[in-house]
Design goal:
The complex is a heterotetramer, with two copies of chain A and two copies of chain B. Chain A is α/β, with parallel strands linked by helices. Helix content of chain A is 14%, strand content 22%. Chain B is α/β, with parallel strands linked by helices. Chain B has a single domain, classed as Glutaconate Coenzyme A-transferase, CATH 3.40.1080.10. In chain B, the strands form three sheets. Chain B has an eight-stranded parallel β-sheet, sandwiched between helices. In chain B, 61% of the residues are buried. Chains A and B meet through helix 2 and helix 3 of A and helix 4, helix 5, helix 6 and helix 7 of B.
């Protein structure tokens, strides 16, 4: 079994690219963890679909106010400078291009930037939430995901076989093994774990990894 | 003019079979639980209203509020963005049994369609859902070289909304993220019925702080200490406690 | 010269049809006067395009706050229950059908309900303001106007010759001589000054006045 | 993050020749006079910016603010709904002389186009202007049997806006009807520069009372006692007092 980053470490890596003062939306689940790892001296402003900008961390257990939750329905807190607004204004922020970064999970990402992250097929109850709006609104749409599925199949693919969330929308993917940009319809490898060879990484990837420039070492602290 | 309504039963008395009802709330916040339960009470007593189309972001949680409405069989169709929750068992069962119709709408599109309904905009274009299954059959138009999907307004016969403070002219404030779809739904419904924690005299709300101006509201009913759906579900509440 | 109502009296007459609690937008100029004549016991709620609902009368001279003006740029006052909002929300009220009545002036009204009230032709600087939105938003679009132009030409016509403000939008016209409804593409006479004969009124009107029902006396107090 | 700008000259330094600038205000209220005059000062000193397209509800009054900008020849095109006022002499003369282009837009359509620009809606349908000269050449579509006119979003490089209180994150409140186009223009401009009467620390504005969330604002400059355009015009002010 290949050495790889834990989900927490992937979130940490993604957090390193968020600049001070950036407006950021974090998807439900793993992406929410990114908020914990803001580098010292940087403070992003977090947006949640349900009408809060600039909220703070989770409250202590027992201190929850259930009118003060994020899109994942988890309790959050106020910070100085928080603002409330209704859902249409919230998605004006999203769709209008006012967010600097949206970080989402993925089932599949294609080399042309297509994303599939909302449906695994016709079985069960479909649910989409705000993902289809986020992928077309934020200036950067970044994905954090394991490099392969639980069955070992590539999640970075030539073209998505699962129902799409958005077309040509992803700009960067942070995986358990690599950092990959999407440029001109190609996967461009930016960083990889030092312990994995390019060949091995390519064999776990469903489309060609381009390396027009230097490939850095992907590292993350123990977390 | 006085838009206050003396009690919950009167507040929901006008909702008829087959109507479209928008219900505010997002996850466990902002759900007008007392209004919904008054409507369920009416249904249990009279068999009406039924065959409702409900617009809500979710599909109800646990066995209270919207989930209880679905459980009682009052809802024929649901228009929502995210019919999943910590405990979506009621909707899931009905849906998989083919007993309830689902119109799935991206959340931002849902919000904008409701706003459009209130603002007299019959259709608009959005990039959201372009190229996906949810855009199938919808008109696509290119603007400045980029494709967009045409979406239609969404209106309702009734809106049931939870606000915070209201005056008898219908001016409203909300509480934190419980605002969510409330202001939009008030504007898009022929009758917006709002439960508030406190009714004040006109002038009791700072004119700068009014979030929903009274023109969008048809009825206000005071529910001094509203329950929070999230807390009901954590307590595993079931409404009504003894179903008929 | 025919006896006729003064502009103030026309405004008074229009005010009699406004019910208690109605949401009303009054156009710039003569229509603004309607607010003065609300019948006892009735209180309409006035909307102005620039973001106020439920404002009060003009302040005493010298007491003006120039952040508190109506669409005619005249100072108004606060009343208990006033609300402020931005221009998009203001026209959501207008376009979304939330106003009960809009009362406007007119150059010409056609028997099909077309209205011309914004431009007298290509000369000069054109200006439209909120009129084109108001005529398609309010549930009732009422006009107050002299029955004829200063040159004595009919303002109620078969079809407008001046640039249109809206198509098929007017529901009632209050003139200096009559109250006329527009129904199914016809002018329907509801009231006329007792002192003018139907024939004389018809001769001052550019399209046929229908009288399917009784025609009441148009009266107004000295004002 | 700190969006405060130390002085008016810095606040308007980024506006370049040929840009589209939205300017808040309605009649004599809400006009960012100090920002406009700082821009005129820059033009008088450097000859730039010029060839501007300005979006405003009106066309300026008297000889201050937007009227003074037009008088100095900085504006090539105006997009507005009502280019008349108590004293519109400056615009009128330029327009009749063919020296300034006018795009006349119904007021509600103007507001909605600006909102659409900020909200990522490239086009929408409105009943307003259907069948009139202002709809000529525009796409018409029928919805539910009624015809509507397609209108496009409106965006700008800059917005100059007058608000009331701001914090250094850009959260804003407004004062009464001076709110008018401000929140919309902030959202629709790549750079929204806002003059406020008072800058407070984050937390100094009630989160429920924020009208423009900071995400829509790029710069805030404090102008403690802003002049009111209406009062300047009643005093027959001319800017600059001695024109070069």
């Amino acid at each position: 079994m290949t050495e790889k980053l834990t989900p927490t470490q992937i979130a940490w890596r993604a957090a390193q690219d968020i600049t001070d003062g950036a407006y950021v939306n974090l998807g439900i689940g793993l992406p929410e963890m990114v908020a914990r790892f803001q580098p010292p001296g940087r403070q992003a402003i977090f947006h949640t679909e349900n009408g809060i900008l600039g909220f703070g961390q989770a409250p202590e257990p027992g201190q929850e106010d259930w009118d003060l939750i994020n899109a994942g329905k988890k309790a959050v807190t106020l910070k100085p400078g928080t603002a409330f607004f209704h859902h249409a204004d919230s998605f004006a922020m999203v769709r209008g291009g006012h967010l600097d970064v949206a970080i989402l999970g993925a089932y599949q990402v294609a080399e042309n930037g297509d994303l599939a992250n909302w449906s695994t097929g016709p079985k069960g109850v479909p649910a989409v939430g705000g993902a289809m709006d986020l992928v077309h609104g934020a200036r950067r749409v970044a994905i954090i995901t394991d490099h392969v599925t639980k069955k070992g199949e590539p999640k970075l693919v030539e073209s998505c076989t699962l129902p799409l969330t958005g077309v040509g929308c992803v700009t960067r993917v942070y995986t358990s093994l690599a950092v990959v940009d999407i440029e001109d319809g190609h996967f461009v490898l930016r960083e990889k774990l030092p312990s994995i060879s390019l060949d091995d990484l390519q064999s776990l990837t469903g489309a060609r990894l381009h390396t027009p420039g230097p490939v850095g070492d992907l590292t993350a602290p123990e977390l | 003019m006085d838009k206050t309504i003396p009690d919950l039963a009167s507040a929901v008395a006008g909702i008829e079979d087959g109507m479209t009802v928008m219900i505010g709330g997002f996850g466990g916040s902002g759900n007008p639980i007392e209004l919904i339960h008054a409507l369920i009470d009416r249904f249990l007593a009279t068999g009406h209203p039924r065959n409702l189309t409900v617009v809500n972001n979710n599909a109800g949680n646990g066995h209270v509020g919207l989930a209880a409405m679905i459980e009682q069989g009052m809802v024929t169709k649901l228009i929502c963005s995210f019919p999943r929750s910590a405990d979506p068992v009621v909707f899931t069962e009905r849906y998989l049994a083919g007993e309830i119709e689902l119109e799935l709408v991206p959340q931002g599109t849902l919000a904008e369609r409701i706003r459009a309904g209130g603002a007299g905009i019959p259709a608009f274009y959005t990039p959201s859902s372009y190229g996906t299954d949810l855009a199938k059959g919808k008109k696509v138009e290119e603007f400045d070289g980029r494709p967009y999907v045409q979406e239609r307004w969404l209106k309702a016969d009734y809106a049931l909304v939870k606000a915070h403070v209201g005056d008898r002219l219908g001016n409203l404030t909300y509480r934190m993220a419980a605002r969510n779809f409330g202001p939009l739904m008030c504007s898009a419904a022929a009758s917006a019925i709002v439960q508030v924690s406190r009714i004040v005299e006109p002038g009791g709300i700072d004119p700068e702080a009014v979030i929903t101006p009274g023109i969008f509201v048809q009825g206000v009913v005071e529910v001094p200490k509203p329950v929070q759906e999230e807390e009901l579900n954590r307590a595993k509440a079931v409404y009504p406690e003894v179903a008929e």
